[in-house]
Structures are given as structure tokens and as C-alpha cells.
Amino acid sequence: xxxxxxTCLFGFCLVGLIGLCxxxxxxxxxxxxxxxxxxxxxxxxxxxxxxAGMEALECIYRSFDHNADGTWIYPDDFGGAYLDEDGxxxxxxxxxxxxxxxxxxxxxxxxxTLTFTRKEFSYNELMRVGQEVxxxxxxxxxxxxxxxxxxxxxxxxxTIREDFFEKAKTLAADLGVTDLVIxxxxxxxxxxx
Length: 193
Description:
It contains 5 helices and 9 strands, in the order H-E-H-E-E-E-E-H-E-H-E-E-H-E. It is an alpha/beta fold. The radius of gyration is 21 Å and the shape is elongated.
């Protein structure tokens, strides 16, 4: 009986320790500084996107061309797409004209499972900024960098090792892109799949 109690106590302590480690890691990632924005994981969607919404989004992506190597060629009026907390697909457009909105609405038909919003930067611009910052970071000694557009914020999410953060903020400021970057700090090298 004592052995069972010790095993249960050990199990509860282990679960508690894991919970504290997770909480400490979450608090570290979602902290903010005066001169840089740190990534805060988004709130998970309460519902899954509808199949009709996913089909509508696929229609938009199928309308885009590809390079010879198979990568997408995004139109300059496209700023990305994301799932909001209600499970609605939100398509980001940079062109405020009705002509642009109608072009995308025509692609998806009368779908009420997605909405459109207007933001300043196109997907292409965000990718260019991400590539520029990543190249600068790598050139200046940061061994591990990952980036991609953070569509809902209309910014670039750049993941780096946390021990390189101060230097990265300075380099982004030198490039004049501080306001376009959200930093995701990793305690170690980034594992890309």
C-alpha cells in the first residue's frame, strides 16, 4: 500500500513539475519588451472551419500561378488567409477597391463561410521582409532562423534562438522593419521538418 501511495505521489509531482515547466515556457514566449513585439500564441478556434469554407479558400489558392520550381506566385493584392477564433476563414486583401473584392468573391461564389479584411502589406512584401531579415541574421551569426507571414497580424513571424534576440532586434531596426516583425523565441536551435 505504501508503494502505491509513493508511486501516486511521484506521479502527481511529475505532472505538477511538467505543468510548471509548460507555464514557465509559455510566460517566457509571450513576454513583451518596449522595443520589440514577442509572439503570443493565438487563441485556438472554438470551431473547425466548414468544408465549404475550406473549399472556398482552396478555390482562391488554385487561381494563383506557380514558378517553375512549384512555389506559389501570389498576386500583390493578396495578404494571406487565416482562421479566426470563431472558425471563420478570413482572407486578407491589400487593395481596398470593390473590383478587387469582387474578383475574389467571384472565385468563391456565394460562400458565407469566409470573410475579407483589408490590411497594408501583401503576402509577397511580408515574404520579402522575412527573407531580408533572415539573410541578415544568418550573415551576422544567427545559425537558426525560421520565418513566415503571420497573416492575422499582417506582419512577419521570425523564430530565432532567444540568446540571439538582442542582436536580432538591433539588426531589424537597422533594416527599418521593426514594426513589421513579431519575434518567436526558441530556447535552442529550431527544428524544421
